[in-house]
Design a protein that fits this description.
Blueprint lengths: L1 H7 L1 H48 L4 H48 L4 H35 L1
Helix pairs in contact: 1-2, 2-3, 3-4
Protein name: DUF2721 domain-containing protein
Organism: Cyanobium gracile UHCC 0281
Keywords: Membrane, Transmembrane, Transmembrane helix
Amino acid sequence: MLLILLVTNPNSVGLAETIRLAVTPVFLLAGISGLLGVITTRLSRIIDRARVLKAGDLSASVARSRELQGELQMHRRRMTLASAAFASATTSFLLVATVVMVLFLSTLATIDLTPLVALLFVLAMGSLMTAVLLLLREVQLGSQALRRF
């Protein structure tokens, strides 16, 4: 019965089509959520390591203290990059969620908001690319730290 109503009611067909279109961005939201989890884990490890370094700095010799300060400075840079990546990924998540919302509003109000959806999607992808590039740079700094210290 519901299928017959969907087929015979043009608004319902439009809504069904909108739901179909909205499923793809939902998969993107799941992927961004995974990325946010990775970034969060990296941030917590950086913070934990910085705490250990600060505690060790109190009892270190002058030469060792300088080494620890250098490593601590590198961890601050990594934390800045990871935090920026997190903010960028969160922005991307919110933009994709807005795309889904605008798709539904467009269908319900029968307004063509295609240009807005396209703009939001491009911004979301740009923000996601920025997050991944920032994460890449943070990983590179972490790798350099392993070789240096």
